[in-house]
Amino acid sequence: MPSLPSFSGLRGRSARTNGRVAPPVPVPLSAYVVDCGVYLDGKRLPGRWTHTDAVREVRKRREGFVWIGLYEPDEEQIQGVAETFGLHELAVEDAVQAHQRPKLERYDDTLFMVLKTVHYIEHDSPDTANEIVETGELMVFLGKDFVVTVRHGKHAGVGTLRRQLEADPERLAMGPAAVLHALADMAVDSYLAVTEAIEDDIDEMEARVFAPRTTVDAEQIYLMKREVLELRRAVMPLAVPLRRLSEGYITLVPEDVRSYFRDVEDHLTTVSEHVAGFDELLTTLIDAALAKITLQQNMDMRKITAWAAIISVPTMIAGIYGMNFDDMPELHWRFGYPIVVGVIVLSCLLLYRILRRNRWL
């Protein structure tokens, strides 16, 4: 995937000149266009195309389709693409603002689909991780002769997918719906990979929770539960859109492509079951970790109480003999002091043995 021009970071920024705020620097649409290709019989036509030239070529030939990819465009820059392809203004607004749930909407002869992309963040241990799952968004506009993808986030992998499809002309020959299927399949495959990695983390955390003489910070389990919920928000809402596509929601998806969407739906079901299981298991781990902490606190209190009981014996005897009365027993006896010390030692040893046998110490 070609790198984005450095001036794309100028979007929405203003420059100061002699203390005055200059108007925002206009950024050309090319700053947001990652790639634009024209495909005929599954093969990409040579040359570089603008979105207007590409759609003009396709409609002149009355066959093939255009695939244009955008990266985080603003409302002004996407307007030209929207006018060229006839995209609905509400869908365009969603594509620019992002932060959408996975969904599928139909506007006249155009489909608008939102996919969540997920990425697993590598870490040394789930006990020390601050973030486990990072999400992005991929919006897809699908027409009879075009596909427009709008990417938010840096880990969608659309460029790699485009090259894979271009190496398989037979698949691209199925039309724009084949591209939509490939994008959905890529997203769901990434869900599978992330769930496998999270499963390893949960297994490691489970082993630590139930290991003897180890403590796990319940806050880390809460963090992992939060990350699983974020993954769940990406996975669960996608089930209905995939079902509608596999059942022939619109003629833009031909019958031979619907079966592929059924396969993606099956994979998504597997992911959904894993995520639901993670949620339940983490809830159990939280309860177990809190119970283990409570048990440990009870054990500590028992030990503190036991030592306090042992210490109270010499304290009591020393307190009695510290009252300095002349008529105290054995006060002037030669063996009084060693006998009192012996009584203290024997009493403490007896208490220690009893408490030790009862597992208070």
TrEMBL record:
Keywords: Cell membrane, Ion transport, Magnesium, Membrane, Transmembrane, Transmembrane helix, Transport
Catalytic activity: Mg(2+)(in) = Mg(2+)(out)
Pfam families with a match to the protein in the record: CorA
UniProt GO cellular component terms: plasma membrane
Membrane topology, record value: Multi-pass membrane protein
GO terms of molecular function: cobalt ion binding; cobalt ion transmembrane transporter activity; magnesium ion binding; magnesium ion transmembrane transporter activity
InterPro entries in UniProt: CorA_cytoplasmic_dom, CorA_TM1_TM2, Mg/Co-transport_prot_CorA, MgTranspt_CorA/ZnTranspt_ZntB
TM region positions: 304-323, 335-355
Compartment list: Cell membrane; Membrane
Region (Disordered) location: 1-21
Family: Belongs to the CorA metal ion transporter (MIT) (TC 1.A.35) family.
Function, in words: Mediates influx of magnesium ions. Alternates between open and closed states. Activated by low cytoplasmic Mg(2+) levels. Inactive when cytoplasmic Mg(2+) levels are high.
Name listed for the protein in its UniProt record: Magnesium transport protein CorA
Originating organism: Kutzneria kofuensis
Classification of source organism: Bacteria, Bacillati, Actinomycetota, Actinomycetes, Pseudonocardiales
Gene name for this UniProt entry: corA
